[in-house]
Amino acid sequence: MSERLTTIEVEEFLPYSPAKVWRALTEPALIARWLMENDFQAIVGHQFQMRGIPVPAVGFSGLVASEVLDVETEKFLRISWRDANSGNSLNSTVTWSITAEDTGTRLSLVHDGFNPDEPTHVASHRIMSGGWRNHVFPRLGQTLAESDSAESDSAHPDS
Fold first, then answer.
1. What is the pLDDT along the chain (159 residues), one digit of tens a residue?
2. Exposed, middle or buried by CB within 10 Å (0-12, 13-18, 19+), for 149?
3. What is the 3-state secondary structure (H, E, C) of the chain?
4. How far is it, in rounded angstroms, from Cα 133 to Cα 98?
5. Rounded-to-integer distance, Cα 87 and Cα 69, Å
6. pTM (two decimals)
7. R_g of the chain computed on alpha carbons
8. Which strand ranges, in their side-by-side order, compose the sheet holding 47-51?
9. Closest Cα partner for 47 from 60, 65, 29, 72?
10. Would residue 81 be called left, alpha or beta, if left means φ above 0 and alpha means ψ between -120 and 50 degrees?
11. Which of 155, 129, 135 has its CA nearest to residue 34?
12. What is the C-alpha to C-alpha distance for residues 52 and 44, in angstroms, rounded to an integer?
C-alpha cells in the first residue's frame, strides 16, 4: 500500500495534436488557464513559480517553487515541485509525457516523491490525486477546446 502512496499517475487521451498539447503545457498564459499563474520557460534549469490556492490542511501556502529538470519538446517535461514558503516541504517531481496516438495525443502525468510515513504527505497525496484527476485534467481539456474554438473563429472571421 505504501508504494501507491508515493506516486500519483494520471493518463488521458486528448483529441489534439502533440504540438497543441505541448503548447498548453508550456505557454504561461495557457498554463495559467488550466493549472496556475506562472512564469514558466521550457529551458532546463529555469526556476519558476506557480501561484494557486492555499490548502491549510496540508500546509500548502499556495505558491509552488519549481525548476525545469528535463525537457524534450513535444515529448517530455519533468519539473521539481515544492511549497515555496515551507523550505523543502512537500518536495516532489511532476513528469508530463506526450505520445501521438491515432487522432490525438496520450498525455501521462506522474507526480512522484510523496513520503507515505509523513501524515502531511499522505493528505497531500490524497488531495492532489483528486485534484489532478477531477480538476486539472478536465480544465486542460477545456482550455484545449477553447483555444481550438478561438483558432477556428480567427481563421473564419465572418462566421
1. 445 789 999 999 999 999 999 999 999 999 999 999 999 999 999 999 999 989 888 888 999 999 999 999 999 999 999 999 887 667 899 999 999 999 999 999 999 999 999 888 898 899 999 999 999 999 999 999 998 777 655 555 554
2. exposed
3. CCCHHHEEEEEEEECCCHHHHHHHHHCHHHHHHHCCEECCCCCCCCEEEEECCCEHHHCECCEEEEEEEEEECCCEEEEEEEECCCCCCCCEEEEEEEEEECCEEEEEEEEECCCCCCHHHHHHHHHHHHHHHHHHHHHHHHHHHHHHHHHHHHHCCCC
4. 17
5. 19
6. 0.89
7. 16
8. 7-14, 104-112, 92-101, 76-83, 63-72, 47-51, 37-38
9. 65
10. beta
11. 135
12. 23
Instruction: State the cell numbers at 51.
Output: 501561484
Residue at 140: amino acid letter: L
Grid coordinates representing 115 are: 513520503
C-alpha cell at 122: 499522505
Residue corresponding to grid cell 487522432: 103
- The cell numbers describing 121, all together, are 504527505
Which three cell numbers, joined as nine digits, stand for 103? 487522432
One-letter amino acid at 75 equals: K
